[in-house]
Each structure stands twice: as C-alpha cells, then as structure tokens.
Design a protein that fits this description.
Blueprint: H1 5-20, E1 29-30, E2 40-50, E3 53-65, E4 68-77, H2 80-84, E5 87-98, E6 101-113, E7 116-126, E8 129-136, E9 165-166, E10 179-183, E11 188-201, E12 210-223, H3 230-236, E13 241-248, E14 253-263, E15 266-279, H4 280-286
Antiparallel strand pairs: 1-6, 2-3, 2-15, 3-4, 4-5, 5-6, 6-7, 7-8, 9-14, 10-11, 11-12, 12-13, 13-14, 14-15
Signal peptide: 1-32
Protein name: DUF3108 domain-containing protein
InterPro entries: DUF3108
C-alpha cells in the first residue's frame, strides 16, 4: 500500500464515487434541491497520509463553463513512499450538468510505478451507460470471480464525475443517505451512504473555512470481484469509510474536502491543504 500511489488514488476515487453520486433509472445522476450552477473553477490540493505519515499529494482542477465541466487530478508519491516507489497518477473526467443532473461523458485514468505504466482506464458514457471501456491490466480469469455482465454497465457513475454535487449549502445533508452504483473499469459495486454529522473546517491562505457535511459509507460488491479474497471481505466489513463535503458557494456545488479510508495497512486520510473556488464573474472583476 505504501509503495503504490495507484492503490491510494484508486481507493480515493472509489470512495469519492461512492459518496458523491446518485444514479436513478436512466443513468442520470440527480441530487435533491440543486442550486444554480455557475461558471467558474475550483483549485484544490490534497495530502495523503497513511497512519499519519505522508505518502502522496495530488491536485484537483475543476472547471465549469456553460454547464459543461472538466475535472483533472494529478498526483504523485511523496515522503517516505517516494524513497521506495516513484509513482504518478492522472485522472480526467468531463461531462454536462443539466439542472440537478450530472451527466458523465468521458473518464480516463493512467498511473505509473517507477516509470512504467501500471494501470490505464478509458471509458465513454452516455446517460449512465458505458458506451466503450478499456482497462489495463485486464482482470485475470478466476473460477471464483463474479462475472461482469452487460447489465452491470448500465445506470452507473464513474469515480471522478461523481465528486461534483450540484446542491445548495442548506441542503448539504441530503448528499448522504443514498445507495450509489459505481463502475471503475474493472468492477461494479454499490456503496451505501449514511449521514453522520456536520463539522467546521478552518482553511488557510484564502482556502475555504466553514461547515462541511460528514458522510459514512459501506462497500457492497456486485460483479467483477472475487468473494473469497481477504481484501474483498475486509472492504465489505470496513466501517472506516468517510468523506467530508464542502460547499463551493460561488459555483453552486459541493466538493470533497476530506476523506478517510480504512485499509489493511491502516487508515488512509486525504485532506485538502488548499481549497479555493472562484466564479468567472469574480475572476473577471479581479482582472
């Protein structure tokens, strides 16, 4: 775990998808009482720590322009981890926002370990259905693997588009209390969410300060997994899955501020060291 940025990013992306999205019939991802989504951007930087020790860092760049969005994550190993494994990760997603609905279009993931590509996923979606998907490395054929069928590629959400929640600040609690269908290129699973609490965060250097909603989650594998594997059993019983969502008021969305993921090696914590949103009109006023 400590030697693999991909493992960290993939777990983080899985949790993000699980905690931020809801896909009803037809694959359109909807949220209760959305606020008006406005053109602008969010620039955020995150530290990844395993048992309190820094293992990686990544930047999230989100842009909204005329209801179309692009999201990009770039990360790499850091601290002690970088001394034993030089890892990088790139995730991209794009799509459209239609009122309460987030409609993913394209998703891409690419990771390297010590200069060699370790994983790659390319997905194209339309209304929650996978139009095309290519994932490397492929899942090895195993007798105990639950088959991944065509039906499992409908009414799903990709791990990155789900991180953006169109919602008013007053309705933050509604982002929890739902069940999420996720496909990451290899496996199909559900994550059952529940509301835990609200909290206050204090940012520095112009970063967000204010309330966040804290969601918990449980992992439910559906297809593509091997039920006999200890890692699958661990995740099914994992009670250390949590995400904090912060409002980006000038954009009318909620975005992840902090995540906690229990792993076999300990607790992986991902928290924002920088979290700055800016509407297009605000940016123009500064120029």
């Amino acid at each position: 775990m400590t030697g693999s940025l991909f493992s960290s990013l993939r777990r983080a992306g899985t949790l993000a998808a699980a905690l931020f999205a809801f896909a009803p019939s037809g694959g359109q991802i909807a949220f209760a009482e959305p606020g008006p989504v406005r053109d602008g951007s969010l620039e955020a930087s995150y530290n990844m720590l395993l048992n309190g020790v820094t293992i990686g860092r990544f930047d999230l760049d989100t842009k909204i322009d005329h209801a179309r969005y692009t999201m990009t994550i770039r990360g790499r190993t850091a601290g002690v981890t970088a001394m034993v494994s030089d890892g990088t990760g790139l995730l991209k997603s794009s799509g459209q926002i239609a009122g309460a609905k987030v409609l993913p279009g394209d998703y891409y993931l690419d990771t390297t370990e010590n200069g060699q590509r370790s994983s790659n996923v390319s997905m194209r979606m339309k209304l929650g259905t996978i139009v095309s998907v290519a994932a490397l490395p492929p899942l090895p054929v195993k007798a105990d693997r639950v088959p991944l069928l065509p039906a499992h590629k409908h009414n799903i959400v990709d791990p990155l588009s789900a991180m953006m929640v169109p919602m008013k600040r007053a309705d933050m609690g509604a982002a929890c209390n739902r069940s999420i269908p996720v496909f990451d290129g290899w496996q199909r699973f559900d994550v059952k969410l529940f509301y835990k609490s609200t909290a206050q965060v204090q940012g520095e250097g112009g970063s967000y300060s204010g309330p966040v909603v804290v969601c918990g989650a449980r992992y439910v594998p559906v297809a593509g997994h091997r039920p006999s594997r200890e890692q699958v059993k661990f995740m099914e019983n994992n009670k250390q899955l949590e995400v904090w969502l912060a409002p980006v008021d000038n954009l009318g969305v909620l975005m992840p501020f902090r995540m906690q993921i229990g792993t076999e090696a300990g607790v992986l914590t991902i928290h924002a060291s920088r979290f700055v949103g800016q509407s297009t009109s605000e940016r123009a006023a500064l120029n």
